[in-house]
Specification:
With about 290 residues, the chain is α+β, with helices and mostly antiparallel strands. It is built from six helices and 13 strands.
């Protein structure tokens, strides 16, 4: 359905539309990720742990600073929803909106996952993306987005007229965080936040501006790899939408597990890397 308006066009409508855009956050002064250090360390990686995330469920896992982790497709196309917390202070968590503003709508190698205020620092850096070839397709779709929020039972209830579904990514991550931290569900749920939609292919329709999803191009063996900039507690949900080619928030789609592999680089291979400092803003807010 096209965008409807009851406002008539002014005489200078085309001139207003023709104004050139300006990048909101120029990042020329943003400290670059030390990708050469990461690339050298990648050549020395050894697996130290792995976690299988079951279909329509979630698992939490810990990644020490200076380690790498991969989210791997193992049985077929499957989308995953990723949350990140500071392992020592879960109030510092992944800030998808600021990550989107600083980088782009869809992330790939070299982009960083930034944390919430007041820390605002990189939590993880993407170091390898086997789907980096995809780019933007003819529909405006791309993979690994930070525009969707996560499927959740509240929106499902709203749109289905009261239907109950307990395996949305929001609920899966809530259970996983509760299990990992020993907190009751009521305390765990507020810690769940907007996600990186790993392997999900999404965009906005050009006629109505609606958020869309389409079949993920991920295949077994594909992976998205991260470097942990700080000690992390991470949560990953294997979305009930499967490859998100038709629907989510139901048991209709074919769903598959995802594999998380945690890797440690050799001693000395990260020479020159230092954990990122918290924001230097003094929090005085003009007072």
């Amino acid at each position: 359905m096209p965008i409807m308006s009851d406002a008539s066009s002014p005489a200078d409508a085309e001139a207003r539309r023709a104004v050139r855009p300006v990048i909101c956050y120029p990042v020329e002064t943003l400290p670059p990720a030390p990708m050469e250090i990461y690339r050298a360390a990648r050549d020395t990686l050894a697996k130290v742990d792995e976690v299988v995330v079951p279909p329509r469920d979630a698992r939490c896992f810990s990644v020490p600073a200076g380690h790498f982790f991969r989210i791997v497709s193992i049985e077929g196309p499957q989308v995953g929803d990723l949350n990140l917390w500071n392992a020592h202070d879960p109030q510092e968590r992944f800030y998808s909106g600021k990550t989107r503003a600083l980088h782009r709508t869809h992330l790939t190698t070299g982009d960083r996952l930034w944390s919430s205020f007041p820390a605002l620092r990189p939590m993880a850096t993407i170091t390898h993306d086997t789907l980096g070839w995809y780019g933007f397709d003819a529909y405006g779709g791309a993979v690994h987005d930070v525009i969707g929020t996560r499927c959740d039972p509240y929106t499902h209830d709203l749109l289905s007229g009261g239907g109950r579904y307990h395996h949305c990514c929001h609920s899966n991550l809530t259970r996983a965080f509760a299990d990992a931290t020993g907190r009751p569900l009521a305390e765990a749920e507020p810690q769940v936040h907007d996600v990186l939609n790993v392997f999900m292919c999404t965009g906005f329709t050009r006629d109505t501006g609606q958020y869309f999803m389409k079949a993920s191009p991920v295949r077994p063996g594909d992976f998205l790899e991260f470097f942990a900039e700080i000690d992390l507690l991470a949560g990953l949900s294997a979305c009930p939408g499967g490859d998100c080619s038709s629907e989510h928030s139901s048991d209709v789609a074919v769903c598959r597990p995802l594999l998380v592999v945690i890797l440690k680089p050799a001693e000395g291979s990260l020479a020159g890397w230092t954990p990122p400092a918290r924001s230097g803003y003094d929090r005085s807010h003009g007072r």
